[in-house]
Amino acid sequence: MKIFCILSDERAFQSKSPALYNAVFKKIGISAAYVPLKVMPDQIGPAMQGLRNLNFSGANVTIPYKSLVIPHMNILSEGANIIGAVNTIIRNGDELKGYNTNAIGFMDTLEEVGFDVTGKKALIFGSGGGARAVIFILNWLRADAIDIAGRTATRVEDIVTGIGGSPTTLEHLDDTPSEAQIIVNTTPISAPEDSPPFYEFIQRQSFKNCRLIVDLNYGRKNNFWEQKARELDIEFVDGLIPLAHSARRTLILWTRVDVPPVEFMNALKKI
């Protein structure tokens, strides 16, 4: 039997990934199990060695460790190296190889909803690993301009230097309304109670040119991104669709088995 896991802080136990992958493993007849593992920030190195010692076949990495695991990889895929974030690990003997399936999973999501970003303006909220993956693929798909609004200016500048895009601030967006046609939230903030000031900021924005809002969070009640999309009468996508597509790409790397995205969505709907 192959063993896989998701590595995070306490959020590992909130993730839908264990239930999702275990359902898909059962559906396609693969002898495998997937478990959540809580790791403290100062234990990333020992956790990576644990993957080797305990014969894990692979792992997912999520917030807040997508960048922190990179120094512990023996090999990085080209995409993970450019993005600067790893969400998928394959163990081959004592070697760990890091990949990023979030980027291509986001591309698959855009294809599913029929949104062509070529020549369009984008606005990204956040500056973590999720933001880096989204910005990487939007650049690759030839988006016209990508504005990045993050809390930490140095992290935003790091993205601009390494991947592309232009830095912006909430204050600037208040003064100069965004003309973006696609808006992507990569922060953990989706409900008013998560951050009342940020919620109030979003409420003030017209987003008059926007045609698609994507929130990488999923299953959130009172989601103000969804409410904003409804007000604008435009399409809204929450994080379940990107999760399904990213999981499909990860499964291909782990098992070389390509399962249709609908199977992942069906499994997610039952969780």
What does this structure look like?
By secondary structure, the chain is an alpha/beta fold. It has two domains: 2-99 and 241-269, Leucine Dehydrogenase, chain A, domain 1 (Rossmann fold); 104-237, Rossmann fold, CATH 3.40.50. Helices cover 41% and strands 20% of the residues. The protein has eleven helices and twelve strands. It has helices at residues 17-28, 44-53, 78-83, 102-113, 129-140, 153-162, 170-175, 196-204, 224-232, 240-255, 261-270, and strands at 2-8, 32-38, 58-61, 75-76, 88-92, 95-99, 121-125, 145-149, 166-168, 182-185, 212-215, 235-237. It has a six-stranded mixed sheet, with helices on both faces. Helix 8 links the parallel strand 10 and strand 11 (212-215). The protein is globular, with a radius of gyration of 18 Å. The protein starts with a strand and ends with a helix. The model has no long low-confidence stretch (mean pLDDT 96). Pathway: Metabolic intermediate biosynthesis; chorismate biosynthesis; chorismate from D-erythrose 4-phosphate and phosphoenolpyruvate: step 4/7.
* Proportion in β-strands: 15-25%
How many DSSP H or I helices?
11
- Tally of distinct domains: 2
The helix/strand class is alpha/beta
| Overall pLDDT | 96
The ordered H/E elements are EHEHEEHEEHEHEHEHEHEHEHH
- Please provide the count of β strands: 12
Structural Rg: 18 Å
Read across the widest sheet, the strand sequence of neighbours is 2-1-3-5-6-4
Q: What is the CATH architecture annotation of the largest domain?
A: 3-Layer(aba) Sandwich
Instruction: Please report the first level of CATH classification, the CATH class of the largest domain.
Output: Alpha Beta
What is the overall shape? globular
Q: Looking at this structure, what is the CATH superfamily of the largest domain?
A: NAD(P)-binding Rossmann-like Domain
Could you name the ranges where pLDDT drops below 50 across 5 or more consecutive residues? none
Tell me roughly what share of residues is in helical segments.
40-55%
Largest sheet: 6 strands, mixed
CATH topology name of the largest domain, in short, is Rossmann fold
What is the first-to-last residue Cα distance?
23 Å
